[in-house]
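To whoever is covering the structure queue this week,

Two jobs came back overnight. Logging them here so there's a record in the thread.

Job A:
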Amino acid sequence: MPKAQTRLQTLQVCKLLQCVREKNKEQIEKLTLNGTPHLINYNDPDLGLTALIVASKANDDEMVEFLLGIGAHPDVMDLKGKTAAMWAAEFGNVECLEKLLAAGANMTLTDLEGKGILFYLITPTERHLKCVELALEHGANVNNVDKEGNPVFVMACDLSAENEKLCLGLLKHGADPNVAQTKSGRTPLMAAAGSGGTSVINALLEARANVNALDAKKNCAGHLAALAGQLQAIKLMAGYNADFNVIASDGGNPIHYAAQKGHAMCIKFLSQRGCNPKPKNNAGNTPKVIAKDQGHKEAGKEIRKAEKTFGKTGKNNDPWILQLYDWTQARQSKLLQSLLSIDVEESGKVTHAEFLDVMAAAQCPTEEDELKKVVSLCDKNREGKIDYNDFFTAKKWVNKNFVAAAFEGKKKKKKKKGKKGGKKGKFKLVMPICVQDEGPRMFGGAPPEMYIPRHVHFTDTGRFDRDAPPKHPLQDDSAWYLQAPVKTYVNINEAAKNQDFDSMREAFSKGVPVDTRDKFYKTPLMTACAVGNIKVVQFLLDNGAAVNARDNFKWTPLHHACHAGQLDVVQLLLENGAEIDASTINGGTPLTRAIESSRDSVVQCLIEKGCKMQTENKKGLSPMDLAYNWADIRVFEIVQAKWDSLPVAKDKKAKKKEKKKRPGTGEKTDTPQALKMPEEDNVPLPRKGSILRAASALAGGLDEQEDITYTPKKAWTAQPTTQELLQEKEVKRERFGWEVDFPDFQMPFQQNVSKKVELFEAEDDG
């Protein structure tokens, strides 16, 4: 590994690498012939790159072949000990790796960390898999362990679910299935169990991997599979006589780990296969407590069942039966092939003797007498033959709660429709939530229409402020020497919520509609009413805001105002023509919103204005019902007083429909009067221009007046003084209460809900 040391060598190596990147073959030949001897294999002083490594990283197979032809060695390493083949493998450059292998690249070399080429081929892509095949064909070490004690096979099994072919290929070429990491003690089976590679786990178990091996923390493969929720991996390990009742160093068994993540079916299987669901871990928690703390209801349910049934035997669930069942399920494909080879007639049945011979040849762990009991259970008709498909389903000789079908989860049954005239079910209101797109961008790439330019007041704060404004518009010349702020945008509803009059005023002056809606169809007026800001409400109404607009739930601004519980806002809306009995999508009216907020003044105002009392929402609740459920005693008394004063409604069934009389020919009918068109105002029309008048004006020597109006570059924005801000705070406290200045302030509706919750909690504690 010659490294460039002198100034001349460094310059020549850098020039050579540049020519390789530019694919300048003529210049490369000149440098190698006339430059430093063996320059083609020199490393640059920074990273140790060689010409061959640069070409391999760039996947330039033509350049690689050219460099090898003029004397480049394929095994020259960089400063980290990586060869060109390792770099090509890391990037999945198949063509370059083929050229390097043809030139005799050594596949057993390792870098300074002890990593061979296979460490750089763990990435799960097709190109990397092709490189793996090439490396294995040319003798790559499948049992390579780096200097930190990490075997390449364990690292590959960490990605067994995504990279099954790599793991199976390493195992096929002689990888040790029981190799373990030096520090952690993790084996390939533990790594595969945690990642969920079922085929890799099956291959490892067939290769006699130790299913009961423990790592440094005394975790077995069952612990890691339970933590990851890999039920199929647990089933395969059960078929190879795995012991699941193992306590780790933290005092937890696999059920503790499964309860932590809420894997209910894993808990059920583990408890049936001998894992105790009752012990406590080192923290003093049982699996049931862990599942409860994590909020896993299904897992807690399975743990409670397991605690009741653990250690008890029933019909067809003896330990030897479960061992035989798990053993057959893990080897089902091989056993089925053997039975099909015997069943020449393809009848699906074999004799008892043939079946016992197949099981004996497969080294069945069950005693012959016990196996004969299973055969007799499968052949209840005493035909002398056994249906091997029925044997694998195991419905005749294994309890139904222990077979594979019991862990697939229950299918939801379709609910039967009630008969005509049956009991009416509870009303469920279907609530469609309409959401519209933000819309296209405006002219010039600006955001959608709902976003308006934010007005930013900038000035020289050392000269002017809100209490010392400029005395003349030309006095504030800050715009000439200060950098203008970056143009930003704000949602028009946010501007209404934050009382940003300047931004809204500029937007409306440029043609932005005052009723611009956000994605929930809410207008600025609705937002202002929802926060109870009467100044913004008045401003928007003065600019022509629609007082009866509706949002996605068909709420009007009056609904939002009543929900906010601000009497002055409600009165202002009613004065401007708000519909007092507007109905929402669920039948709610402004009166019901005021009752829910428990604001007696707003309720009294709506009643005095003549709102309807005898209404019902979609759940059949009247304002009186809502007052009983939601409001305090003051609101309830107001609603009850009005309710009692209403006339008793007559029975609708007693009313007979009056037949509409057909208008006779002799009856008098009111003849529609002709509509009178409004008289036009007698406004004098402007005189039309003429050539003679223009000529006489020119002859008279009339001069055009020059406009000398000066517009400042940046006009001063009127700012409220400190005294005005303090007065505004006082008004806000009078309207909303003294809590409005605190971060935990709640609007009336939320206050009412919080009080109800506190009352219910007090009743429960009492």
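Job B:
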Amino acid sequence: GVLIQDAQWEKGAIAVMKTGIWFVSQESQVCIPLGDIAGIELTSREIQEKDLNVVKIDHLGENEVVTSFVLCPMTTLQVLYTFLKEATYGSEVSEEIDPLTGQVGMLVYSGMDSGTIENMLKLSHKELDAIYEKLLSMGLAEVLYIRKEVQLTAKGVRYITETVKSPMD
């Protein structure tokens, strides 16, 4: 699904640098690092009842995908689009992923945690870890945190058993 929050056009300037794109208006300054760009598309958008060409930029912002649109004269749009495509070319994925890995990737993208993915796809912890390793090695994912699996020691078993006994035992 798509949720649009506080979508509004702001008049401003664009500064394209080697490391990112700056959008500067009277109200704000926003930088989109080139490494955070997930997709670029030259498309049209209805603005004030007219279909106008825009560059659509999907990028990561605070752990979610944000879509920004740039509207400017067509010649500037073409230059911006071409630059962004070339600047992000190295981040293209060269190998295909299998359907199960793609499915896991989609579930991660939609916000599901590892336990839910394991249950939903009937995968063991080790199977899911292997899929995560594949996504990591391809540069398609990054580690948020490492989940620990623990087992009680004899001391732990004694302590827990004593703690949960009712006073009547």
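Note for Job B: The first strand starts at residue 12 and ends at 16.

Please reply-all if you pick these up so we don't duplicate work.
Q.
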